[in-house]
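call fold(seq) -> tokens
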Amino acid sequence: MIKVHQFAPAFGLPNASPFCMKLETYMRMAGLPFELVNDGNVLRAPKGKLPYIEDAGRVVADTYFIIEYLKTTYGDALDTSMTAAERSLATAFQRLLEEDLYWAVVHTRWCDDAGWAKTRQAFFGALPLPLCWIVPPLARRGLRAEMRGHGMGRHTADEIHAIGCRDVDALADWLGDKPYMLGDQPRSLDASAYAFLANLLWVPVESPIRRHAQTRTTLDAYCQRMKAQYYA
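ret:
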């Protein structure tokens, strides 16, 4: 059985971490058996981040490398029939979600004090003493430093919100009335899209990005379809 180490569910979502939720969604889509270990302990994670998996004595970290490992080990049930053009689009949209929109949303959760109050409880509320005192400020400081190194943290709040809204529009315009991101068939890209969009739309951290995403109603409908299909 594959063990998935992650944060505990929060906000009515499978996970408040879009990366943890992405991995669980992918495994559900691929029909892989797994056991969730909701320890939330980043100090034990190989790369200092969650999720990571244990499988047959092997530890794999980072959702990209985890999913590649799962495809190689257990077969690729979702993406084998994709064309080269579809693979290119999937890569581009995955980067938009995970390397751009993600950091804009991180700002609303981890830098804004009102967002941080809810984020701290969601991610670290289950940690025992004294870890619940030690880990949250370290994680917040680390993410702020990562944001600055990435470049997103060098912008003003208004500029970050504008970037996030632009990303939301790109996703909504591309999705249109398609059932899945690339058409009629679910692909591994949908695990990312659902996880990141649900974590924007359905987490009660107010921001101009969330309010704008709520006006693009096809995005909520898409998330509802994914939830009904894979988390019924």
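The domain at 2-74 is CATH 3.40.30.10 (Glutaredoxin).
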